[in-house]
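quick one before i forget lol
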Amino acid sequence: MSVDVIAAAQQAAGLGPPGKPPALPARLLMRQLLRAWAASGRKAERLSRAVERWGPRLAGSALRTRLPNGCLISCGLGDLVGRQIYFHGVSEPTECFLLSRLLRPAMTVIDGGAHWGEYTLLAATAVGAGGSVHSFEPAPANFTLLERHVAINRLSNVRLNRAALWHEASTLALELPPEVPDNSGAWEIAAPAAEAALAATAPAVALDRYVEEKGLQRIDFVKLDLQGAEPQALAGARGALSRWRPLLLVELSRPHLARFGATPERLVAQLESAGYQGWLVGPSPRASGPLTDPGSVQFANAFFFPGAPPRLLFEGLKRRTARRWACRGWYGRGWLSALARRAWAAKLDRGGSPGSSIRRQHKR
């Protein structure tokens, strides 16, 4: 499927000029066409452009969809992250796919910058009743949706915190930059005297203090998407990192880090000095690789492993594997869909499961 197909469907459906919401039948048709394109895994960049062009016009209110693990999540198509989740299955297919292969039952996960709970929901079902997920989201509107999504999916192993991860206990001012009013994931710690499109405050906590207060016995995985505040959060987690050596998924954004006087090079060096090795996430698992040149990074996510990165996790996968996996939650939860998902999982693991190899290595 291509943009030409979408354009032809648009013409056939009689959609109006750009900016005018199409009629309901046309909206339904366009949504289904875009999602069918996503499920094919083909030409992801062209799909993204089509989604950004048409997506905001294809629903007047929030739509429910399912993540790859079957969890329900509500997405407003007027929001950048909402469009990504609804039309791509998840907002970051490669990262979420690799996360699903790294997590195992009974793990303890920290989700820093949880937003609406996409990573929280994926992790909660992966670690099961014997594990736990501790989610931190400071923006009030995002936290309300996070609470709702955890509640509707009845995830009793999730602990919610309307707070920011930081290097000390504090109260922080937040802002949504006026240039990105349609991106609810862009909330950041406000700079002094900055003009904000919206403003709020939130408590801040250090992860080490949180671990002590909650009596956590271990931490296995930490995800940090904090709009440049990752170094501060890591400084507040030195004890947990040195004690338990958790796996990490960290956003590296040069413009956001610069607001705090940091750079990707400095952040990577900080983690390497603690014994971690980075693995830069590309558009697909096969296009990912060792983080050897942080100086060239403008915006990317990276996994950090305590020791040599487990190569088996990233080998033997087709380029479209992650994008197809991201869409599998759309096909229901009946017995036929369950059989299809099992068959798909078996296909992914044929010849040995990289995920199981990773779990063995981490367990040792």
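fyi The radius of gyration is 20 Å.
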